[in-house]
Amino acid sequence: MGKYFGTDGFRGEANKDLTVLDAFKVGRFLGWYYKEKNPDNSCRIVIGKDTRRSSYMFEDALSAGITASGADAYLMHVTTTPSVSYITRVDEFDCGVMISASHNPFYDNGIKVINGNGEKLDDETIDKIEEYLDGRIGELPYAERENIGRTVDYAAGRNRYIGYLISVAKKSFKNKHIALDCANGSASSIAKPVFDALGAHTHVMANEPNGLNINDQVGSTHMDKLREFVIQEKCDIGFAYDGDADRCLCVDEKGNLVNGDQIMYACAKSMKAEGKLKDNTLVVTVMSNLGLIKALDKEGISYEKTKVGDRFVYESMVQNGYSLGGEQSGHIIFSKYATTGDGILTSLMLMEVLLDSKQPVSKLMEGCPMYPQCLKNVRVKDKKEALGNLKIAEAIREVEALLSDSGRILVRESGTEPLIRVMVEAETEECCEAMVDKVVAVIKSEGLAID
């Protein structure tokens, strides 16, 4: 991770941690950098944004920086991260930029940069952006006269992506009642048209963004309202997205939560049966639930574990040619169709499995019960110092010994916030919480936590 760019872009509170000047400078660098790489051709950079109020400000700043460096900025307006990835790749843009802080509250925002293949930007280029932000690269030349770039309306790109999603689904959703929680975010402009076109009875909530209500007690990190909504509307299934719609979680017909691990289980099992799961292997992360691992063992499906982050999942998939991978949080990648996690695409893939099985969602998930899990975030002064603390390491070893083969503990730093995440899985919720609290207490007693 860099100084500014974490595992999922440059993220922070708008105009505090991530300022409008930062966005302008990122645009300046990208326009100059890709123009230098292709001096004989025009440089084209596509931009998408989510619905938070500051996204409009950052869109203007990025566009100004890009055009000031002589490149053209193409605006998809409110759209999803995976749509920017798709359009960057298929329309051969030099790179793409998504303005979003994903599941964070409205006052945060972020800048995600996507390369010409629709993938997250490589570390080498990110390092160069950070050098420019820190003034370690001299001032870049401004374009002049006819070389100044243009800003181009590209809402058509979003419509093309909607058409692509519709084309991916091979079955009609006729007679299926489907609930969609759009988190008052990017999915608000895309999800309903897709499911309507496929014949579903679509029931939508959190579909009225006002710039301040994105992820506000709705979406994939706040599932209670969708669970109630599915029961109220008598739906067969419900899907919840995050702010930029690159992740998806689910609710079954009884209102029970279905997480990313369970979605991957159902899809992997179906793909194995059809001979479409490369090497019968699913790519998961170290955060995946022990219940998923045991279910995969039972089905004869192998798994590859990576660090947390869909970037690392995707890298493993590319290196080995795997067809499916993802995270418990709902970032799920189907490599045949996308180069990044795509919440709406994941919904479509699970619907295909559901229709093929001719079973309700609750029945489909019976083979993958989840172990109780407790996750607590501790805001700390210095993540590296906390992870290197000897007393914390000793507490972790004590928990590992107590859990033995009946559970596990994982302590890691957040890639986007000043947090240490302490997670325990065990046979009971009481045991999980007790073990987590044991480690959290040591972090606090060592004076490393921020109240």
Task: Describe the 3D structure.
The model has no long low-confidence stretch (mean pLDDT 95). The protein starts with a strand and ends in a 6-residue tail after the last helix. The chain has 451 residues and is α/β, with parallel strands linked by helices. Helices cover 39% and strands 21% of the residues. The strands form 5 sheets. It has a 7-stranded mixed sheet, sandwiched between helices. It has a 5-stranded mixed sheet with strand order 9-8-10-11-12, with helices on both faces. The chain is built from 15 helices and 19 strands. Helix 1 (20-37) packs parallel to helix 2 (53-68). Strand 1 and strand 2 (9-13) form a beta hairpin. The protein is globular.
Write the topology of this structure.
Blueprint: E1 5-6, E2 9-13, H1 20-37, E3 44-49, H2 53-68, E4 72-78, H3 81-90, E5 95-99, E6 108-115, H4 123-133, E7 151-153, H5 155-168, E8 177-181, H6 191-197, E9 201-205, H7 224-233, E10 237-241, E11 248-251, E12 257-258, H8 260-273, E13 281-285, H9 290-299, E14 302-306, H10 310-320, E15 324-326, E16 332-334, H11 343-357, H12 361-364, E17 373-379, H13 383-387, H14 390-403, E18 408-413, E19 419-425, H15 429-445
Parallel strand pairs: 3-4, 3-5, 4-7, 8-9, 8-10, 13-14
Antiparallel strand pairs: 1-2, 2-6, 5-6, 10-11, 11-12, 15-16, 17-19, 18-19
